[in-house]
Design a protein that fits this description.
This is Galanin. By secondary structure, the chain is of the alpha+beta class. 49% of the residues lie in helices and 22% in strands.
Protein backbone atom coordinates (compact mmCIF):
# COMPACT_ATOMS: atom_id res chain seq x y z
CA UNK A 1 0.00 0.00 0.00
CA UNK A 2 1.41 3.37 -1.01
CA UNK A 3 2.14 5.96 1.69
CA UNK A 4 -0.54 8.60 2.10
CA UNK A 5 -0.19 12.33 2.61
CA UNK A 6 -0.84 12.03 6.36
CA UNK A 7 2.02 9.57 6.77
CA UNK A 8 4.28 11.89 4.76
CA UNK A 9 3.45 14.65 7.23
CA UNK A 10 4.68 12.42 10.07
CA UNK A 11 7.78 11.44 8.08
CA UNK A 12 8.47 15.09 7.24
CA UNK A 13 8.54 16.21 10.89
CA UNK A 14 10.23 13.09 12.26
CA UNK A 15 12.88 12.34 9.64
CA UNK A 16 13.29 15.27 7.26
CA UNK A 17 12.70 18.39 9.36
CA UNK A 18 15.95 18.24 11.44
CA UNK A 19 18.17 18.05 8.33
CA UNK A 20 16.08 20.59 6.45
CA UNK A 21 16.77 23.23 9.09
CA UNK A 22 20.43 23.37 8.02
CA UNK A 23 19.39 23.55 4.37
CA UNK A 24 16.93 26.31 5.20
CA UNK A 25 19.76 28.35 6.74
CA UNK A 26 21.71 27.92 3.51
CA UNK A 27 18.68 29.08 1.51
CA UNK A 28 18.34 32.23 3.62
CA UNK A 29 22.08 32.92 3.26
CA UNK A 30 21.81 32.63 -0.53
CA UNK A 31 18.81 34.96 -0.62
CA UNK A 32 20.68 37.50 1.49
CA UNK A 33 23.74 37.29 -0.80
CA UNK A 34 21.57 37.73 -3.89
CA UNK A 35 19.84 40.79 -2.43
CA UNK A 36 23.21 42.37 -1.61
CA UNK A 37 24.52 41.52 -5.08
CA UNK A 38 21.40 43.04 -6.69
CA UNK A 39 21.75 46.29 -4.72
CA UNK A 40 25.45 46.52 -5.54
CA UNK A 41 24.82 45.90 -9.24
CA UNK A 42 22.05 48.52 -9.33
CA UNK A 43 24.49 51.03 -7.82
CA UNK A 44 27.31 50.09 -10.23
CA UNK A 45 24.90 50.05 -13.18
CA UNK A 46 23.71 53.56 -12.30
CA UNK A 47 27.32 54.81 -12.11
CA UNK A 48 28.14 53.11 -15.41
CA UNK A 49 25.08 54.69 -17.05
CA UNK A 50 26.09 58.23 -16.01
CA UNK A 51 29.69 57.68 -17.16
CA UNK A 52 28.67 56.26 -20.55
CA UNK A 53 25.91 58.81 -21.19
CA UNK A 54 28.37 61.68 -20.74
CA UNK A 55 30.62 60.41 -23.50
CA UNK A 56 30.06 61.11 -27.18
CA UNK A 57 30.13 57.40 -27.99
CA UNK A 58 26.78 56.29 -26.49
CA UNK A 59 23.30 57.83 -26.59
CA UNK A 60 21.42 57.77 -23.23
CA UNK A 61 19.29 54.86 -24.49
CA UNK A 62 22.33 52.81 -25.51
CA UNK A 63 24.09 53.67 -22.24
CA UNK A 64 21.03 52.48 -20.29
CA UNK A 65 20.71 49.23 -22.25
CA UNK A 66 24.41 48.45 -21.92
CA UNK A 67 24.39 49.14 -18.16
CA UNK A 68 21.22 47.13 -17.57
CA UNK A 69 22.39 44.18 -19.67
CA UNK A 70 25.81 44.09 -17.97
CA UNK A 71 24.18 44.12 -14.55
CA UNK A 72 21.72 41.40 -15.50
CA UNK A 73 24.41 39.07 -16.89
CA UNK A 74 26.61 39.49 -13.81
CA UNK A 75 23.62 38.87 -11.54
CA UNK A 76 22.68 35.67 -13.42
CA UNK A 77 26.27 34.42 -13.08
CA UNK A 78 26.16 35.04 -9.31
CA UNK A 79 22.67 33.50 -9.07
CA UNK A 80 23.70 30.26 -10.77
CA UNK A 81 26.91 30.02 -8.76
CA UNK A 82 25.13 30.60 -5.44
CA UNK A 83 22.32 28.09 -5.94
CA UNK A 84 24.29 25.27 -7.62
CA UNK A 85 25.29 23.60 -4.32
CA UNK A 86 21.90 24.29 -2.79
CA UNK A 87 20.05 22.53 -5.63
CA UNK A 88 22.24 19.46 -5.25
CA UNK A 89 21.70 19.30 -1.48
CA UNK A 90 17.96 19.83 -1.91
CA UNK A 91 17.75 16.77 -4.16
CA UNK A 92 19.72 14.67 -1.66
CA UNK A 93 17.69 15.74 1.35
CA UNK A 94 14.23 16.17 -0.18
CA UNK A 95 13.71 14.46 -3.54
CA UNK A 96 15.74 11.31 -2.88
CA UNK A 97 14.27 10.86 0.60
CA UNK A 98 10.76 11.34 -0.71
CA UNK A 99 11.24 8.79 -3.50
CA UNK A 100 12.52 6.25 -0.99
CA UNK A 101 9.61 7.10 1.27
CA UNK A 102 7.20 6.29 -1.58
CA UNK A 103 9.07 3.12 -2.56
CA UNK A 104 12.38 2.14 -0.91
CA UNK A 105 13.31 -0.10 -3.84
CA UNK A 106 13.50 2.75 -6.36
CA UNK A 107 16.96 4.03 -7.33
CA UNK A 108 17.39 7.78 -7.79
CA UNK A 109 20.30 9.38 -9.69
CA UNK A 110 20.05 13.15 -9.76
CA UNK A 111 22.55 13.76 -12.59
CA UNK A 112 21.48 10.91 -14.89
CA UNK A 113 18.62 10.57 -17.35
CA UNK A 114 17.00 8.35 -19.95
CA UNK A 115 19.42 8.24 -22.88
CA UNK A 116 18.95 9.48 -26.42
CA UNK A 117 18.53 5.97 -27.81
CA UNK A 118 15.52 5.32 -25.58
CA UNK A 119 14.02 8.72 -26.42
CA UNK A 120 14.35 8.01 -30.16
CA UNK A 121 13.03 4.48 -29.73
CA UNK A 122 9.77 5.90 -28.36
CA UNK A 123 9.08 7.68 -31.71
CA UNK A 124 7.04 10.24 -29.78
CA UNK A 125 8.83 13.25 -31.23
CA UNK A 126 9.92 13.00 -34.84
CA UNK A 127 11.70 16.38 -35.12
CA UNK A 128 15.50 16.42 -35.38
CA UNK A 129 17.08 17.88 -32.25
CA UNK A 130 20.32 19.72 -31.49
CA UNK A 131 20.49 19.57 -27.71
CA UNK A 132 19.49 16.71 -25.39
CA UNK A 133 19.66 16.91 -21.60
CA UNK A 134 17.99 15.30 -18.63
CA UNK A 135 18.29 14.69 -14.91
CA UNK A 136 16.60 13.11 -11.90
CA UNK A 137 16.48 9.56 -13.24
CA UNK A 138 14.42 7.07 -11.22
CA UNK A 139 14.66 3.32 -11.96
CA UNK A 140 13.17 0.23 -10.39
CA UNK A 141 10.01 -1.81 -10.11
CA UNK A 142 6.58 -0.58 -9.05
CA UNK A 143 4.00 -3.29 -8.36
CA UNK A 144 6.30 -5.72 -10.19
CA UNK A 145 6.52 -3.52 -13.31
CA UNK A 146 9.92 -2.22 -14.47
CA UNK A 147 9.86 1.58 -14.82
CA UNK A 148 12.26 4.41 -15.62
CA UNK A 149 11.48 8.12 -15.59
CA UNK A 150 13.26 11.44 -15.53
CA UNK A 151 12.97 15.15 -16.23
CA UNK A 152 13.91 15.53 -19.91
CA UNK A 153 14.65 18.57 -22.07
CA UNK A 154 15.08 18.28 -25.85
CA UNK A 155 15.69 21.35 -28.02
CA UNK A 156 16.43 22.40 -31.57
CA UNK A 157 18.23 25.45 -32.87
CA UNK A 158 16.05 27.83 -34.90
CA UNK A 159 16.75 31.05 -36.74
CA UNK A 160 14.49 34.04 -36.06
CA UNK A 161 13.24 36.57 -38.61
CA UNK A 162 16.11 38.83 -37.54
CA UNK A 163 18.61 36.11 -38.41
CA UNK A 164 19.47 35.31 -34.79
CA UNK A 165 19.78 31.75 -33.52
CA UNK A 166 17.59 30.66 -30.63
CA UNK A 167 16.83 27.40 -28.81
CA UNK A 168 13.30 26.09 -29.19
CA UNK A 169 11.79 23.28 -27.09
CA UNK A 170 10.78 20.04 -28.79
CA UNK A 171 9.94 18.51 -25.45
CA UNK A 172 10.33 19.52 -21.82
CA UNK A 173 8.92 17.54 -18.93
CA UNK A 174 8.35 14.04 -17.59
CA UNK A 175 9.52 11.12 -19.73
CA UNK A 176 8.32 7.75 -18.42
CA UNK A 177 9.00 4.21 -19.67
CA UNK A 178 7.41 1.00 -18.36
CA UNK A 179 6.93 -2.59 -19.38
CA UNK A 180 3.49 -3.02 -20.96
CA UNK A 181 1.24 -5.89 -19.94
CA UNK A 182 0.76 -7.22 -23.47
CA UNK A 183 3.29 -8.52 -25.95
CA UNK A 184 3.02 -6.88 -29.36
CA UNK A 185 5.06 -6.29 -32.50
CA UNK A 186 3.35 -3.22 -34.00
CA UNK A 187 4.18 0.39 -33.14
CA UNK A 188 1.43 2.71 -31.94
CA UNK A 189 1.90 6.43 -31.29
CA UNK A 190 -0.77 8.52 -29.52
CA UNK A 191 -0.40 12.29 -29.89
CA UNK A 192 -2.47 15.31 -28.82
CA UNK A 193 -5.02 15.99 -31.54
CA UNK A 194 -4.13 19.59 -32.36
CA UNK A 195 -4.88 19.57 -36.09
CA UNK A 196 -8.46 18.27 -35.96
CA UNK A 197 -9.41 20.53 -33.06
CA UNK A 198 -7.94 23.57 -34.83
CA UNK A 199 -8.84 22.89 -38.46
CA UNK A 200 -11.78 20.45 -38.34
CA UNK A 201 -12.16 18.31 -41.49
CA UNK A 202 -9.01 19.82 -43.02
CA UNK A 203 -7.10 18.78 -39.89
CA UNK A 204 -8.42 15.23 -40.20
CA UNK A 205 -7.28 15.12 -43.84
CA UNK A 206 -3.83 16.42 -42.90
CA UNK A 207 -3.52 13.75 -40.21
CA UNK A 208 -4.25 11.09 -42.81
CA UNK A 209 -1.43 12.20 -45.12
CA UNK A 210 1.41 12.13 -42.61
CA UNK A 211 3.71 9.45 -44.11
CA UNK A 212 6.41 9.90 -41.47
CA UNK A 213 4.01 8.73 -38.76
CA UNK A 214 2.52 5.67 -40.46
CA UNK A 215 -1.10 4.68 -40.86
CA UNK A 216 -3.85 6.78 -39.23
CA UNK A 217 -5.80 4.60 -36.77
CA UNK A 218 -9.43 5.59 -36.16
CA UNK A 219 -10.91 4.20 -32.95
CA UNK A 220 -14.48 3.83 -31.71
CA UNK A 221 -14.09 5.90 -28.52
CA UNK A 222 -15.57 9.38 -28.97
CA UNK A 223 -13.86 11.11 -26.02
CA UNK A 224 -10.49 9.55 -26.86
CA UNK A 225 -10.77 10.53 -30.54
CA UNK A 226 -11.49 14.15 -29.57
CA UNK A 227 -8.29 14.34 -27.52
CA UNK A 228 -5.81 12.24 -29.49
CA UNK A 229 -4.68 11.23 -32.93
CA UNK A 230 -3.28 7.70 -33.29
CA UNK A 231 -0.75 6.36 -35.78
CA UNK A 232 0.35 2.76 -36.14
CA UNK A 233 1.67 0.21 -38.57
CA UNK A 234 -0.99 -2.46 -37.92
CA UNK A 235 -4.70 -1.69 -37.63
CA UNK A 236 -5.59 -4.94 -35.85
CA UNK A 237 -2.74 -4.94 -33.36
CA UNK A 238 -3.25 -1.24 -32.65
CA UNK A 239 -6.78 -2.05 -31.49
CA UNK A 240 -5.43 -4.99 -29.49
CA UNK A 241 -3.08 -2.59 -27.66
CA UNK A 242 -5.55 0.30 -27.33
CA UNK A 243 -8.43 -1.59 -25.83
CA UNK A 244 -11.58 0.31 -24.87
CA UNK A 245 -10.64 -0.01 -21.18
CA UNK A 246 -7.17 1.44 -21.78
CA UNK A 247 -8.59 4.36 -23.78
CA UNK A 248 -10.94 5.06 -20.84
CA UNK A 249 -7.96 5.17 -18.49
CA UNK A 250 -5.96 7.43 -20.82
CA UNK A 251 -8.87 9.88 -21.10
CA UNK A 252 -9.36 9.88 -17.31
CA UNK A 253 -5.62 10.39 -16.73
CA UNK A 254 -5.48 13.25 -19.23
CA UNK A 255 -8.48 14.98 -17.62
CA UNK A 256 -6.88 14.66 -14.19
CA UNK A 257 -3.40 15.86 -15.19
CA UNK A 258 -4.57 18.48 -17.73
CA UNK A 259 -1.24 18.70 -19.58
CA UNK A 260 -0.19 17.76 -23.12
CA UNK A 261 0.09 13.96 -23.06
CA UNK A 262 2.03 11.78 -25.53
CA UNK A 263 2.03 7.97 -25.51
CA UNK A 264 3.62 5.28 -27.60
CA UNK A 265 3.70 1.51 -27.50
CA UNK A 266 6.91 0.08 -28.93
CA UNK A 267 8.61 -3.30 -28.36
CA UNK A 268 6.09 -4.25 -25.64
CA UNK A 269 6.85 -1.06 -23.69
CA UNK A 270 4.79 1.99 -22.83
CA UNK A 271 6.45 5.38 -23.37
CA UNK A 272 4.70 8.37 -21.82
CA UNK A 273 5.64 12.05 -22.01
CA UNK A 274 3.96 14.87 -20.10
CA UNK A 275 4.86 18.40 -21.09
CA UNK A 276 5.82 20.77 -18.26
CA UNK A 277 6.96 24.36 -18.69
CA UNK A 278 9.35 24.28 -15.71
CA UNK A 279 11.84 21.79 -14.23
CA UNK A 280 10.11 19.08 -12.18
CA UNK A 281 12.33 18.67 -9.13
CA UNK A 282 14.17 21.97 -8.70
CA UNK A 283 13.81 23.87 -5.40
CA UNK A 284 11.99 27.20 -5.29
CA UNK A 285 14.47 29.56 -3.66
CA UNK A 286 11.81 31.95 -2.39
CA UNK A 287 9.86 29.29 -0.47
CA UNK A 288 10.77 28.11 3.01
CA UNK A 289 11.63 24.43 3.39
CA UNK A 290 10.23 24.50 6.90
CA UNK A 291 6.69 24.80 5.59
CA UNK A 292 5.10 21.47 4.74
CA UNK A 293 3.20 22.98 1.79
CA UNK A 294 6.54 23.48 -0.02
CA UNK A 295 7.29 19.76 0.24
CA UNK A 296 3.74 18.62 -0.45
CA UNK A 297 3.81 19.70 -4.11
CA UNK A 298 6.84 17.46 -4.84
CA UNK A 299 5.16 14.55 -3.05
CA UNK A 300 1.98 14.93 -5.11
CA UNK A 301 4.00 15.04 -8.33
CA UNK A 302 6.00 11.92 -7.42
CA UNK A 303 2.84 10.12 -6.32
CA UNK A 304 1.17 10.95 -9.65
CA UNK A 305 4.18 9.53 -11.54
CA UNK A 306 4.49 6.32 -9.53
CA UNK A 307 0.72 5.82 -9.76
CA UNK A 308 0.90 5.63 -13.57
CA UNK A 309 1.52 1.90 -13.20
CA UNK A 310 -1.77 1.37 -11.37
CA UNK A 311 -3.68 4.10 -13.28
CA UNK A 312 -3.05 2.21 -16.52
CA UNK A 313 -3.24 -1.17 -14.75
CA UNK A 314 0.16 -2.17 -16.09
CA UNK A 315 0.52 -4.40 -13.04
CA UNK A 316 -2.49 -6.48 -14.03
CA UNK A 317 -1.73 -9.25 -16.49
CA UNK A 318 -5.36 -9.43 -17.56
CA UNK A 319 -4.64 -10.24 -21.16
CA UNK A 320 -1.28 -11.85 -20.55
CA UNK A 321 0.58 -12.90 -23.71
CA UNK A 322 -0.92 -13.80 -27.06
Amino acid sequence: MKPRLASLLDYYYESMYPTLQALEEKRLTILSSLKKAALMLVFLGTVLFFVLSRTNVFTPLHAFLLSAMSGFLIFMFIYRHERAGYDSLFKDLVIEKMIHFLDPSLIYTKMDSIDEREYERSELFSEAYDRFSGKDLVCGEIEGVKVRFCDLHVEKKVRTKNGKEEWSDIFSGLFFVADFNKTFHAKVVVLPDVAERSLGILGTWLQGVNPSRGELIKLDHVAFEKLFVVYGDDQIESRYILSHALMERIVAFHQKIDKPLYLSFVDSKLFLALHYTKPLFEPILTRSLLEFESIKAYFELLTMITNIVTEFKLNEKLWSKR
